[in-house]
């Protein structure tokens, strides 16, 4: 695919890096000459210096022949104009990053007569095929993590019938064993192993090392018992504290309220505190500044089941997460802007560091991948993915037994789902049209995996 990425800030750079590793044909448009030069030095992509909202610059980037234009500058309105201009020039598809949630909703436009019907303006009428709000995506991910009994990241496939959860290996019951000899109490598939900064599909005789991250796939009903094997304490969220009431903090608080969770929000802005006090129905909203031990102890953070640091300052978020754990919070989730901060946050004891940019990357990857893709999950930063495919009658895997398919090296079939029936592991299953097939794959193997489903 020929893809134009407009904006080389943290979000644009990350997405361009991801897509270039996917061997896509990428051009980055950036107004700041220094930022453009950094992209040119570090990535194998084309670079155009200029404002992506100007047609002349888009033509220079050949947006008129682009399969996809992704507008990821820091300004919502610039991104929307960019997508509109790109579509007018001939771009096939556009993705627009916005932070204002109302931009991505339908707009009702009034008429001169109060009795006349109102016109609905949809995003496609504005030249946008998909709005992406990294903060909203991050909020959804946080709520998904907190919906389980464990602090570790969790993803769902096939309408929640299949779950995948990350478990860090520290328990002596697992350490030093081969993958084949781990005494799993329920059926599961070890989809991937994260070791250091990389991910790979393990062999049955691979020995588990301390600090490995095992990505287990299982049915929803079996996952809780599997977690017990890793010595991960269970938590039922009754009380959650949120530090920072921006887009992420507010949306998490609102979603947890609906689930009956008691929420306390700590926000430094007096006006924002007052605003949220009227918007949130049952949450307690208090004003507080820096997340020192005195403040967090006074607000009862030590008694919480989870603490979420969601300000716009990633250094402050990491500090808040550490202090929260020191005063007794059961687990911490912190937001970081840059994906490279995630290993640092993990190293200092944060349970779940999360980058909205990675959530943005997931959405973009899901949109770009073809061949009947239903969902995509990125593991780590960007070197592995789990993809849920819908099998068509013309797919190469259709009417084939799972074992008979020559799956690319670096990939593993986690499950085959047919209606309410989940086959996990899918040994002996013949893949049929309309089945959902969930595959874990390293980045290098993804093109070959995709070809099997075309």
Entry summary:
The chain is an alpha/beta fold and about 450 residues long.
Describe the protein in words.
This protein is α/β, with parallel strands linked by helices. Among the domains are: 2-107 and 118-132, NAD(P)-binding Rossmann-like Domain (Rossmann fold, 3-Layer(aba) Sandwich); 236-330, 3-Layer(aba) Sandwich (Rossmann fold); 359-452, Alpha-Beta Plaits. 29% of the residues lie in helices and 26% in strands. It contains 13 helices and 24 strands. The chain has a 6-stranded parallel beta sheet, with helices on both faces. Strand 1 (2-6), helix 1 and strand 2 (25-30) form a beta-alpha-beta unit. It is globular.
Features of the shown structure:
454 residues; alpha/beta; Rossmann fold; 6-stranded parallel β-sheet
Instruction: Name the CATH superfamily assignment of the domain at 2-107 and 118-132.
Output: NAD(P)-binding Rossmann-like Domain
The major β-sheet equals: 6 strands, parallel
Can you tell me the CATH topology of the domain at 2-107 and 118-132? Answer: Rossmann fold
DSSP strand (E) fraction?
25-35%
The assigned structural class equals alpha/beta
Q: Unreliable runs, pLDDT <50, ≥5 residues?
A: 106-122
> First CA to last CA: what distance?
16 Å
Helical element count?
13
Mean residue pLDDT: 86
Number of strands: 24
Taken from the alpha-carbon principal axes, the silhouette is globular
Helix content: 25-40%
The CATH C-level name of the domain at 2-107 and 118-132 is Alpha Beta
What strand order characterises the main sheet?
Answer: 3-2-1-4-5-8
Supply Rg.
23 Å
Query: Any guess at the CATH architecture of the domain at 2-107 and 118-132?
Result: 3-Layer(aba) Sandwich
